[in-house]
Design goal:
Elements: E1 6-11, H1 15-25, E2 31-37, H2 40-46, E3 54-57, E4 60-61, E5 64-65, H3 66-76, E6 81-86, H4 91-99, E7 104-107, H5 112-129, H6 137-143, H7 166-178, H8 185-192, H9 196-208, E8 213-217, E9 225-229
Parallel strand pairs: 1-2, 1-3, 3-6, 6-7
Antiparallel strand pairs: 4-5, 8-9
């Protein structure tokens, strides 16, 4: 017997971004978009008529701060889980999101690999919540997003998402641990002998498990640059 699909409510005032999230979720068999809202007030109204398991929540909404909405939702609908998706990477917003009970936090512009790995992490965590078995301390730490040494469970090949090899992951992790300043994917790739796209995929995975932080640097010309650093 298969598990029922996880219902997702997308709260995003950018209709293009909301459509992108919806299309990505359609590629995940275990998730279904059951609603979309562009404002805080619309979100509250929808929660009176639908019951999502998961909300993808933007911080910058036209009628409210997403953090305030996060606290409001968790107070009235404590069973609903929330993943923040925002361009805000200031410490206060991240801290308040954690204190408000957000499951995870993704920075815009989102990376497809990071988006899918975060949803998969949520699916596995939800499955563990519903398993009704005794949970060991190591698993409790993972469920509570506690950092463990990079050589431990997070780099165990049995727990890594598809497309992440533990040996390459270790090289990227060691390169970041040795770095005295922030690096972009090309700079890390040159150190470990990997392509830009491969290195970026591993860096984004390390960001998703809180072993690396990312800053978006806006130059005068061209696309914003993502630079990675130790927390």
């Amino acid at each position: 017997m298969t598990n029922p699909s996880i219902g997702v409510l997308i709260v995003e005032d950018d209709s293009v971004a909301a459509s992108v999230y919806e299309q990505l979720i359609k590629n995940k068999d275990d998730f279904t978009v059951i609603g979309k809202a562009e404002t805080a007030s619309e979100t509250i109204q929808l929660l009176d008529v639908i019951t999502p398991e998961l909300i993808l929540l933007d911080i910058h909404l036209p009628d409210a701060n997403g953090i305030d909405l996060l606290f409001q939702i968790k107070q009235a609908h404590r069973h609903v889980d929330i993943i923040i998706i925002t361009a805000s990477n200031d410490a206060k917003t991240v801290r308040d999101s954690m204190r408000g009970g957000a499951f995870s936090y993704m920075l815009k512009p989102i990376m497809v690999e990071s988006f899918f790995s975060t949803l998969e992490e949520y699916r596995q965590t939800r499955q563990a919540w519903q398993s009704n078995v005794i949970i060991k301390q190591e698993e409790i730490q993972r469920l509570f997003h506690k950092n463990v040494p990079a050589t431990e469970a997070k780099q165990d090949s049995d727990t890594l998402p598809k497309g992440i090899d533990k040996h390459t992951l270790r090289k990227v992790t060691l390169a970041m641990e040795a770095a005295s300043t922030s690096l972009n994917a090309e700079e890390v790739g040159l150190q470990i002998g990997a392509s830009h796209s491969t290195t970026r995929r591993y860096l984004e995975y390390l960001v998703s498990i809180d072993l690396v932080e990312v800053d978006i640097v806006y130059g005068s010309v061209g696309r914003p640059e993502r630079r990675y650093k130790k927390p």
